[in-house]
Amino acid sequence: MKPPATVKRAAAWALPYWTRGQAGRETPQDLFRVLYLGWLVALTLKLLGSAWDVSWHFKWLRDDLAPPHLLNSAGTALVVALTVIHGYTGYGVDKIALRLIQWGTGVFLVAVPLDLINHRVNGLDITSWSPSHMMLYLGTFFMIAGVVRGWFMGAPPGRERTVVLGALFAFFLENVHFPEQHQEYGVLSIGAWDNHATYAEPILLQFAADQMGRPVDRVMMVGFALPVPDYLYPVYAVVVGASVLVAARLMIGRFGAATLVAGAYVGFRTLIWPLLTFTGFPPSAVPFFLVACGLVVDVAFLVRMPAARAVLGAAGVTAVAYGALAAQSVLLGHLYGAVKGQNGLLGAPPLVPASALWAGLGLMAVWLTVEWLAARRGLQPIEARVIATATP
To answer: Residue 268: which domain range?
Structure first.
């Protein structure tokens, strides 16, 4: 059977580029766009698979060949192909971006068989916070970080560069927030139990009860649906989720960037909510508070720039900029109010107010680290370049 004409034309176009080279070689813009379009498709497949995956596991007993896993695997196959192309040709990435992509893909591929072994040994292990699952997120974290850097360094200025960068950060936010979905699904599953209804199939509930060594009762349901401490959800959301939005605001360099990235992720979660529930899958609490988080981040950067430009001494700029940054990061403690409000209106995982102190300190440390890394790796925000230009 002969390949279609479109396949022949694509092969004829791509073949001249298949030459070995070092990372950082000059990349034709048409090839650059095709490579990163491939990344957007791969990450979209993984996004759709992961979005379906948690809901699936709160309804059915685990299956290695479940449809969400197959959809995610299709995205992973494309990721591996793109990683090989970047590594062999050197096109579309610098050395740092290539290493991040390669290490991230490698960690992810190692984590897959470890996760399968973990499920064989430990049974259900539904928690999203298990070590093998965390390796999957970590691998994806480095992989997307490499893609973000590759696009940031190679794309020409303009609307396309900004839009794609925002989309990549939305994928980034989805990956880091993914384990939090366990509590977001779990809290509504417990609410359904309390209302004398269940979302999970009897075979799944019985398997979980047998593994815990107790009958199918509320204690078992809580252990199944909320197996981690209550303080973990808000602390992780503030420290890790907000840090991604900080990085997005830094690299995109425009007011509203963090809000739009958070809004894109929350919008996606809102869109798939009825698609899943109307087809019989369990619902989840949607993290609407992340939009408020993005807005606070944007406002913090808006306030920070004039404060930094107020003093233009040799060390004064850095001191004022970082002092203002630290002060603004404390404001994100108010996000606990947003989570509490959502809990009362729409449903959210349990909130431990006393953990706000640790969330604020953790966010301050990570935020300053993101600033330091951005400056060190040449990914400074627009504000920093303006201040540097204005310094006599």
So the answer is: 229-392
Q: Residues 182-197, buried b or exposed e (16+ Cβ, 10 A)? A: bbbbbbbbbebbeeee
Residue 186 lies in a domain: no
Q: Write phi, then psi, for 13 (nearest 5 degrees).
A: -70, -40
Token pair in block for residue 305: 């720039």
Please tell me the total count of domains within the chain.
Answer: 1
Report residue 60 as tokens: 């059915």
Helices assigned H by DSSP within the chain: 5-14, 29-57, 67-89, 95-122, 131-154, 159-177, 181-194, 202-212, 218-225, 232-236, 242-252, 257-277, 289-309, 316-330, 335-345, 356-376, 382-390
Is 72 in contact with 173 (CB distance < 8 Å)?
no
Sign, Cα dihedral of 339, 341, 346, 351: positive
Could you tell me the sign of the dihedral formed by the alpha carbons of 36, 180, 204, 122, in that order? Answer: positive
The long-range contacts involving 31-37, CB below 8 angstroms and separated by at least 24 positions, are 31/91, 31/92, 32/91, 32/92, 32/154, 32/155, 35/82, 35/85, 35/86, 35/91, 35/92, 36/92, 36/147, 36/150, 36/151, 36/155, 36/164
3-state secondary structure of 352: coil
Each of the 392 residues of the chain gets a pLDDT tens digit; together they read 555 666 667 667 777 778 898 988 999 999 999 999 999 999 999 999 888 888 877 777 666 667 877 888 899 999 999 999 999 999 999 999 999 999 999 999 999 888 777 766 665 566 778 888 889 999 999 999 999 999 999 999 999 999 999 999 999 999 999 999 888 888 888 888 888 878 777 777 777 777 777 888 888 888 888 888 888 988 898 889 888 998 999 899 888 999 999 999 999 999 988 888 888 888 888 898 899 889 888 888 877 655 444 443 444 445 445 554 554 555 556 677 666 666 655 667 877 878 887 887 888 788 778 777 777 766 654 444 433 433 33
Instruction: Please give the distance of CA 70 from its chain centroid, rounded to a whole number.
Output: 20
Tell me if residue 250 falls in helix, strand or coil: helix
In-domain check, residue 374: yes
Inside any domain, residue 244: yes
In a domain, 245, yes or no: yes
End-to-end Cα spacing for the chain: 70
